[in-house]
Amino acid sequence: MSQPERGQVEQAIQTYIDPYLHKNLLELKAVQNIRIEGSRVEVDIRLGYPADSLKGAIRQILTHAIEDIDGVEQVEIKVDWEVIPHRAQKNMKSMEGVKNIIAVASGKGGVGKSTTTANLALALAQEGARVGILDADIYGPSMGLMMGIPEGQRPGVKDEKFFIPLEAHGVQVMSMAFLVNDKTPMVWRGPMVSGAMQQLLTQSLWQDLDFLLIDMPPGTGDIQLTLAQKVPVTGAVVVTTPQDIALLDCKKGIEMFRKVDIPVLGVVENMSYHHCSNCGHHEPLFGEGGGARIADEYGVELLGALPLHMTIREQMDAGKPTVVAEPDSEVAMVYRDIARKMGALLSVQAKNYANPMPEIIVKSDA
Question: What is the CA radius of gyration of the chain?
Fold first, then answer.
């Protein structure tokens, strides 16, 4: 019996095409090692994005492909993944304790941006990543409620300088809502709001995050400008609904990120259709195909489309987003698919070779 050759094994590996990047594992440089000892073949695969739920399928596909080679009697496939820091705008240094910062934004309010942020963070966590959320909507912080953090719970403090983010469903969370009474309005001018956001970000002790998702306030104002100038953002996701008014604002959001050299990873179309809980009928209340048209126009990805469903709202109000409330549901599967696709698109961007930026400490002389 002849011994299998490396070229045959590589050819078998090429039969698996990454579902998000549409390239084989050799093209993606995901094959770390190939060992051939007699009739035994061992292959080590390392993806560049969180994909715990794909490991089993990849192992099975590659095992069957390699077993078909003459002379192969035993196959062992190891599949792993690793997230690295990617390039931020203007080659800014990454933050200490955070590999990648992703801004989740919308041109207008009411499109489900915070709901999307929470579920994407939880989906990434379920794929094995270490994830945090910064609620940057200083005027209307809602992430604490959505993530089920009890009212009045406060973050810990270290050395009287740093906040220790709260944790919910395995995700680190920081929000202005944790520092003030929920009935206290933030009657602040723009510079104060921008400063507060930056302090929340840089004075929080984020613990070894693969991804920090920033839930942005709607629009293109002071906080967005501060983010572009002072925060190392590796990518942005823009949330919209199919209706024409939302799409106009979605375009502004994409244009804003492009002007400040932040790559737009893609568009999420929320409220794509209404799902009737009684009969299961799908109806596009706000129009059809808007997200796809915007994605095509700007050459970005349509990451996914999500329904307008009463249970999504109920679960968010109860502090249990869909991804954890119903992890096997169709909606949860869509969120996980979007999260994997977002991570995959980020994984092929340039690496950030700059050393992490030091933590910024803001002191008062008073």
Answer: 22
